[in-house]
């Protein structure tokens, strides 16, 4: 695991593919590498995505109510976010 990106960077890199996704999608894609991390929880991933939105890296692009009657917010990297991801994470 020592060669992996920090969790927050991996979350941001997940959005470099130009596809919208939600917390559950991020967790599904990163689970194999990061599920043992203490901060790999829905609450913490939600917070990371909301912080990235507030910092101008991601935009909200859709939402839905899931089977558990919980709000799912979808995000996508905007042009500034894609540039920052490419520039600083690779």
What topology emerges from the helices and strands here?
Layout: H1 7-14, H2 23-34, H3 42-54, E1 58-65, E2 71-77, H4 79-88
Antiparallel strand pairs: 1-2
Helix pairs in contact: 1-2, 2-3
Could you describe the 3D structure shown?
The chain is an alpha+beta fold and 90 residues long. It has one domain (7-88): Winged helix-like DNA-binding domain superfamily/Winged helix DNA-binding domain (Arc Repressor Mutant, subunit A, Orthogonal Bundle). It is 48% helix and 17% strand. Strands 1-2 form a two-stranded antiparallel ribbon. A hairpin with a 5-residue loop joins strand 1 and strand 2 (71-77). Helix 2 (23-34) crosses helix 3 (42-54). The longest helix has 13 residues, at 42-54. The radius of gyration is 13 Å and the shape is globular.
């Amino acid at each position: 695991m020592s060669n992996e990106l920090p969790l927050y960077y991996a979350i941001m890199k997940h959005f470099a593919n130009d596809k919208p996704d939600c917390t559950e999608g991020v967790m599904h894609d990163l689970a194999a590498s990061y599920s043992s991390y203490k901060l790999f929880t829905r609450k913490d991933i939600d917070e990371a995505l909301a912080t990235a939105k507030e910092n101008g890296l991601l935009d909200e692009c859709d939402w839905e109510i899931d089977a558990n009657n919980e709000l799912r917010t979808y995000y996508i990297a905007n042009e500034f976010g894609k540039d920052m991801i490419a520039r600083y994470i690779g």
